[in-house]
């Protein structure tokens, strides 16, 4: 039934898109990201004289991927340019245009090499980086000062102590106030959060770069048990339903001391309507007992549908959108991290997002999810992982039992070939 609903939504959206006499159709994401994308595409259309159509994809990355896979399976040419998560190239590469030789090397070399390399599958360049992401810790600067803390927590244990003290104090006048919000829903966002916990505890990356399943170890189990201890203590009982936007909603409404989220939340938190405008600090995520903080690598890229009938125009569009001018606009207006190295020294960008400079190493050394070694099976791996983590957060399992069972499940997936 869910797939049918998604398919019907896509049919309706595409019917609306085709109502005009546009030429190139682009998948522009959702929400604020959609608005920024649309503005950039319109600038390209005005510059080139071309006409465009827009597709607004679902907020959920899982549903977004499902739509793209449905489109490609049907060999549809309805959408020319796809917005692609950093973990999708291995899943979709066979049906995307190889951009090698079609985009000048001088343009490609402006991007961080590691992010560009993540879009290469078997020698085929399937997408161009548009913006990068890494998990960050947001905190209320005013409340840290109010409760006697001099800076952001360096470890998860410190975060728990600080969050509890602030929460207990604030709940005297605001019963809805909580200490820490994050992405606890069983979806790709939980995979990112839990990967950060496990790596920071020294528990590995679920599957290592050689394809070996490594998650069944005491440090990984300890990380999951630690996260479960936050539920109903410093995090709300409903944290298992939270995605990025639910977490941002609590924090931006002034109802949370700390939040784990992506860089985009900064610009929205500084909006005039935000209750925490001017009170937001941003830091690297805390470290576990191993003393090593970790941030999951995120980011989105633009690729061309292999069934597009407008490939040359589509390539021209993504070259424009991923270029320095557009990446700078998106960084200033939406706090989207550029993939072009030189923009991290741009004064206008740094004025809008001071943490781009201070947390530069967080963005350039973020931990990749194991989409590379698991290739086309990554979705199954991620779903198995987030389900195991969810079982611990919901109190249905403990860390040790969850990672042991997960290791067995992953070995079964691996046995079918990745």
Report on this model:
The structure is a single chain. The chain is α+β, with helices and mostly antiparallel strands. The chain folds into two domains: 2-134 and 298-363, 3-Layer(aba) Sandwich (D-Maltodextrin-Binding Protein, domain 2), CATH 3.40.190; 136-294 and 370-415, D-Maltodextrin-Binding Protein, domain 2, CATH 3.40.190.10. It is 47% helix and 12% strand. It is built from 20 helices and eleven strands. Strands 8-9-7-10 form a four-stranded mixed β-sheet. The chain has a three-stranded antiparallel β-sheet with strand order 3-11-6. α2 (31-48) packs antiparallel against α14, α10 (218-230) packs across α20 and α19 (378-393) packs antiparallel against α20 (399-415). The longest helix is centred in the first third of the chain and has 18 residues, at 31-48. It is globular, with a radius of gyration of 21 Å. It starts with a helix and ends with a helix. Belongs to the bacterial solute-binding protein 1 family. InterPro entries: Bact_solute-bd_prot1, SBP.
Features:
D-Maltodextrin-Binding Protein, domain 2; 418 residues; 3-stranded antiparallel beta sheet; disordered N terminus; 2 domains; 11 strands; 4-stranded mixed beta sheet; single chain
Sum this structure up briefly:
The chain is α+β, with helices and mostly antiparallel strands and 418 residues long. The protein is built from 20 helices and 11 strands.
What is the CATH domain class of the largest domain?
A: Alpha Beta
CATH superfamily (homologous) name of the largest domain:
Periplasmic binding protein-like II
How many independent structural domains? 2
Question: Architecture of the largest domain, according to CATH?
Answer: 3-Layer(aba) Sandwich
Report the mean per-residue pLDDT as an integer: 93
Q: In this structure, how is the largest beta sheet organized?
A: 4 strands, mixed
Q: Determine the CATH topology of the largest domain.
A: D-Maltodextrin-Binding Protein, domain 2
Helix coverage percent: 40-55%
How do the strands line up in the largest sheet? 8-9-7-10
Strand content: 5-15%
Radius of gyration: 21 Å
Distance from N terminus to C terminus (CA atoms, Å) equals 29 Å
In one word, what is the shape?
globular
If helices are DSSP runs of H or I spanning 4 or more residues, what is the number of helices? 20
Low-confidence stretches: 1-22
Structure summary, number of beta strands: 11
Structural class: alpha+beta
């Amino acid at each position: 039934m869910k797939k049918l609903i998604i398919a019907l939504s896509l049919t309706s959206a595409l019917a609306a898109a085709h109502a005009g006499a546009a030429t190139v159709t682009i998948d522009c994401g959702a929400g604020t990201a959609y608005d920024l994308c649309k503005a950039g595409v319109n600038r390209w259309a005005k510059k080139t004289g071309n006409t465009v159509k827009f597709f607004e994809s679902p907020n959920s990355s899982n549903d977004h991927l499902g739509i793209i896979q449905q489109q490609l399976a049907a060999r549809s040419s309805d959408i020319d340019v796809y917005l692609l998560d950093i973990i999708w190239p291995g899943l979709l590469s066979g049906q995307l245009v190889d951009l090698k030789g079609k985009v000048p090397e001088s343009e490609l070399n402006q991007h961080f090499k590691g992010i560009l390399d993540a879009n290469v599958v078997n020698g085929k360049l399937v997408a161009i980086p548009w913006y990068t992401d890494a998990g960050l810790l947001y905190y209320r600067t005013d409340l840290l000062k109010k409760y006697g803390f001099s800076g952001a927590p360096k470890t998860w244990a410190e975060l728990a102590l600080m969050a509890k003290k602030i929460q207990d104090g604030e709940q005297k006048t605001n019963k809805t106030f909580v200490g820490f919000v994050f992405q606890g829903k069983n979806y790709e966002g939980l995979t990112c959060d839990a990967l950060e916990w496990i790596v920071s505890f020294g528990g590995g990356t679920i599957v290592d770069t050689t394809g070996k399943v490594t998650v069944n170890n005491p440090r990984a189990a300890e990380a999951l048990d630690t996260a479960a201890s936050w539920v109903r203590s410093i995090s709300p009982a409903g944290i298992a339903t939270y995605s990025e936007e639910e977490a941002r909603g609590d924090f931006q409404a002034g109802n949370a001391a700390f939040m784990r989220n992506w860089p985009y939340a900064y610009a929205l938190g500084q909006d005039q309507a935000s209750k925490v405008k001017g009170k937001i600090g941003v830091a690297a995520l805390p470290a576990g007992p191993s003393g090593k903080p970790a941030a999951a690598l995120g980011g989105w890229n633009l690729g061309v549908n292999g069934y597009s009938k407008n490939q040359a125009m589509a390539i021209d569009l993504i070259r424009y959108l991923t270029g320095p001018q557009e990446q700078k606009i998106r960084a200033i207006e939406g706090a989207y991290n550029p993939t072009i190295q030189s923009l991290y020294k741009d004064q206008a960008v740094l004025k809008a997002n001071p943490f781009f400079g201070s947390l530069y190493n967080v963005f350039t050394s973020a931990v990749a999810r194991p989409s590379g070694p698991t290739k086309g099976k990554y979705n199954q791996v991620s779903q198995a992982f987030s389900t195991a983590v969810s079982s611990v957060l919901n109190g249905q399992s403990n860390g040790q039992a969850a990672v042991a069972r997960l290791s067995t499940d992953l070995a079964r997936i691996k046995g079918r070939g990745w």
